Every structure is written in structure tokens, then in C-alpha cells.
Amino acid sequence: MTQPQQLWTASRLGTFQWRNWDETETILFHTASGDTHVLSPPAAVVLKELEHASLPFEEIVKRVTISLGDVHDDSLADQVEQLLDDFDQLGLIEPVT
After folding, report:
1. What is the pLDDT of residues 1-31, one digit of tens each?
2. Which of 44, 54, 94, 95 could form an S-S bond across to 39 if both were Cys, CB 3.0 to 4.6 Å?
């Protein structure tokens, strides 16, 4: 469970290399892990935002909502929470301590 005030940032290990194939698919190569990831639009927004700033959960949800032109609802918040958990497990993001 993501703590609402916990700040998140992109991993300081390695860099992200981005490729966009179309409006619905973004490819990310993480130099530290050597892994390549196919990202959905919300996932790409989360990582791009965290590359530029350390943000709390609610601000990440807000930025995803604005970027995708969606209405903020519980399902989007749940999706962002799952993305943060997944990205943390993969070593793509980390909590700010």
C-alpha cells in the first residue's frame, strides 16, 4: 500500500532510454538493469514525471489524469498505485528517504 505523503523518484541507478512506437506504446530501456519494458500510456506518464521530480502519490495521479485527459476516479488511482508498486519492485523508482 502506497503511503499518500511518500515521495517517489526515478531510480538514481542508470538512466532511462525512451522510444515511442505510437500513441499507445512506449518502450523503455533501463541502463542499470539492462531490461526493456513495454509501457502503457499511464505507466509512461508516471515514469516520465518521476524522472523530472520527486512526487507524492496524489500528485502523480493528478499528473497522469491531466496528461491522459481522463477523469480522476478510484480506478485510475488504483492503477497508479499498482504501477508504483511494480516499478519499485523492478528498481525503476524508489522512495525518497
Report:
1. 567 689 999 999 989 999 988 777 899 999 9
2. 44
DSSP one-letter string for 78-94: HHHHHHHHHHHHHTSEE
CA dist 81 and 60 (Å) reads 10
Going by C-alpha positions, the residue among 6, 14, 24 that lies closest to residue 51 is 14
The three cell numbers of residue 40 are 502503457
Cβ proximity of 26 and 67 under 8 Å: no
Q: Residue 41 CA to chain centroid, in angstroms?
A: 10
Judged by DSSP in three states, 66 sits in helix
Backbone φ and ψ for 93, nearest 5 degrees, come out as -130, 165
User: Residue 18's closest CA among 53, 48, 50?
Assistant: 48
Say if CB 54 and CB 11 are below 8 A apart: no
Location of C-alpha cell 505523503: 5
